[in-house]
Amino acid sequence: MHFTINGQSHDIEVDVRTSLLDLCREHLGLTGSKKGCDHGQCGACTMLVNGRRVNSCLTLAVMHQNDEITTIEGLGQPGNLHPLQDAFVRHDGFQCGYCTPGQICSAVGMMDEVKKGWPSHVTGDLGAAELTVEEISERMSGNLCRCAAYPNIVDAIRDAAGLGDRNPNEDVGKEVAA
Predict the structure, then answer these.
(1) What is 83-161's CATH topology?
(2) Per-residue pLDDT, 177
(3) Of 76, 85, 80, 59, nearest to 3 (Cα)?
(4) Crossing angle of helices 150-160/83-90, nearest 10°?
(5) Which residue, 7, 91, 142, 161, has fewest beta-carbon neighbours within 10 Å?
């Protein structure tokens, strides 16, 4: 099978039952994306496929031949971080760090969805979604953080989007953790 992952071509022979997550982790050594629940419930395995967020534990690799796949390793490099990676570091958007690759990949895809005008369940004006705390919490609700770093994750996303810090009196995390 042929795959393009992080801009590099890979021709590899794997079982057709291999998930995209296992292809990257076990066969290509791209271990940034994590296997959390292996049921698509935690988001630790989130990757971008053709720019869209995907729970890579739930999709078969064979389905993504000739797609553009981006893992956390493809977003930035030490000394040249992606703006969201940089914001996560500056805002301490992680504690144990296990969910961080999935959180960042999901945030990249989420910000693109907003840019394209795709509404979420909480979008008030269907013509112009804004990255409010409520909007970010709703859109990131598929990515869980066992350490509960949600306020810092929201701050990092808002910062990367050029929106500044949230109001510290806002209750962040209840929508995500619920």
Answers:
(1) DNA polymerase; domain 1 (1.10.150)
(2) 46
(3) 59
(4) 140
(5) 7
